[in-house]
Amino acid sequence: MTTVAVVGTGVIGASWAALFLDRGLDVIATDPAPGAEERLRSALEGTPTDRLRFVADAGSAAAEADFVQENGPEREDVKHALFAVLDEAARPDVVLASSSSGLLPSVIARGCPHHPERVVVGHPFNPAHLIPLVEVVPGRDTAPEVVERAMAFYTSLGKRPIRLAQEVPGHVANRLQAALWQEAYSLVERGVATDADIDAAIANGPGLRWAVLGPFANQHLSGGAGGLAHVLRHLGPPTEQWWRDLGRVHLTPELAETLVAGVDAELAGTDPDRLAAARDAVLDRLLAAKAAQPDLP
């Protein structure tokens, strides 16, 4: 593959474009929003853009592509209209991958009357040009070879794709995040802790281990010589009690206002662009450190 169509150039699309360009691919980008090309080129400052072209419509981008990465709004009607255009314009052998963070690929593929078998979700994590994870999710009609080609393509970019055995709303990582957010929001609602307290608890506690190993591997190490079996025997019963005490939260306007006020207070005086740059700099060093450790899975 030498040419990728990036359809939708917001935060995720721009990040994909940066990665594709950095890996030496030709990128044909498109986005109908006024000023989209200027915003994309601004977002790509520091990335060589001699292999970038911006075209007016999604069909033109898809017609020349070897792979399509779609990044449109999370709305079924928009996806259906957009994928109808992509399905009509792209060669039959071209994979149509959606960055959707939660829609089912079978639902997205309803917009493809010709080749629904080439639709797959390829969900990255923001910032997509840094975070290795890509969730590859086939739909009911997705051909096995399409999944294999998507996995191989993302792997060739240096990503760490995982293949889901079945489609579920939100895929895997967002569902795990949602479980944490539910309890975090509940703890704020109940007055147990502030936004800043909860951020500090994760960023200075389990989040440090989660950046190195996943929940099962970390639990296994916590069990010493007995591993995960020991942890489940000794911490399983109290963990079940904690599960029963977890909050069932409703995101009311009042709670949303409390959460926003809390993060505003936590980050008062902090420049968002500098904060994101600092995060990305740490991610760069962390990823390099992980890559230098051959014993990590």
UniProtKB/TrEMBL annotation:
Q: Where is the 3-hydroxyacyl-CoA dehydrogenase NAD binding domain?
A: 3-166
Q: Which InterPro entries match?
A: 3-OHacyl-CoA_DH_NAD-bd (IPR006176), 3HC_DH_C (IPR006108), 6-PGluconate_DH-like_C_sf (IPR008927), 6PGD_dom2 (IPR013328), NAD(P)-bd_dom_sf (IPR036291)
A Pfam short name? 3HCDH
Q: Where is the 3-hydroxyacyl-CoA dehydrogenase C-terminal domain?
A: 170-237
Q: In which pathway does it act?
A: Lipid metabolism; butanoate metabolism
User: Sorted alphabetically, which keywords does the UniProt record give?
Assistant: Oxidoreductase
| Family note | Belongs to the 3-hydroxyacyl-CoA dehydrogenase family.
What is the protein's given name?
3-hydroxyacyl-CoA dehydrogenase NAD-binding domain-containing protein
Lineage of the organism: Bacteria, Bacillati, Actinomycetota, Actinomycetes, Pseudonocardiales
